[in-house]
User: What shape does this take?
Amino acid sequence: MRILLYRGDGDIAPWAADFAAALPHVEIVAWREGVPTPPCDYAAIWAPPPALLADLAHVKAIFLMGAGADALLKFGAALPDVPIVRLGDAGMGEQMADYVAGAVLRWFRRFDDYERQARAGSWQPLPPRRKEDFSVGVLGLGKLGVPVLRTLRQLGFPVRGWSRTPKDLPNVACFAGLDALDDFLAGTRVLVCMLPLTPETTHLLDRARLSRLPQGAYLVNVARGGLVAEPDLLALIREGHVAGAMLDVFRNEPLPAPHPFWNEPRIAITPHVAAVTLRTQAVQQIVAKIALLERGEPVADVIDRERGY
Ligand code: NDP
Ligand code: OXD
Assistant: This one.
């Protein structure tokens, strides 16, 4: 058996070493542009260039070394008709929960306001906020959205969630479908975006939708930049309707130097690190799924190309 490996964002050598250690009888092929690739049985890839697609001709399945499939699905009909399998959690749920809890607590305890005051040399206690007024709404109740909700609920915040199909989660106010989105937004003080980027979700958060949030709401986007109409968000922050945002993902990454987000003090920026792929967990999960496929058994986390996630 041969497995083709590629990551567009870093050194593939440690991945090759981990796969080789887990599968000693398998040939690991680190893909390089312009170097002939032998036929491979499986591929484990992230952010591939178009030139790699021709070398997927013989694979039985494509494994993504990440959770989102948008960067692969954009190749559409150029992809072979084999299962595309993404990572399911693999240590990302806990990272997402930490990231989002940090953002919510920062605003709830007004650390952003106190940082501003401290820079101005001002010693001024501010009125405390009540958790019951600080409802957190998570868009996307999947592998990563659910652990985020669980953590926020444990911290005592009222939580609500929105998904495509109806859900029943303990102590979570659940909403489903576009018809329910306005009601969901109207009761959300901190909106957390954890949706996949699909044709249906692109630009979902535009001026009209963000305006449904109550005055003084906050936004955390840890999903994909294309879900948010960036100029609309900026305008609503400048007008004061949205009090602040913590953004990990952007339409163009890295966020370009002249982008106005860089100079907006109410926007906190991180460089797409809300939940990084943990190599050990990822390799273990992919190796286990290859074993299932080799035995002819079904695997979890197969992308539905129609739905786009
Ligand atoms: P899942 O596929 O497990 O969950 C997706 C959720 O979104 C599901 O609840 C689904 O609804 C819902 N959803 C999808 N489309 C719609 C729609 N049109 N309307 C309403 N709800 C919808 O994904 P994960 O939780 O694993 O990951 C979510 C995203 O997080 C990834 O796609 C990726 O883009 C991003 N990500 C970002 C990272 C970072 O570091 N910033 C790291 C990892 C992932 P339903 O349950 O009904 O199917
Ligand atoms: C992912 C990501 O989808 O890193 O895994 O954004």
In short: Residues 67-68, 92, 140-145, 163-165, 194-198, 200-201, 222-224, 248-249, 272, 274-275, 309 surround NDP (ligand 1) (CB under 6 Å).
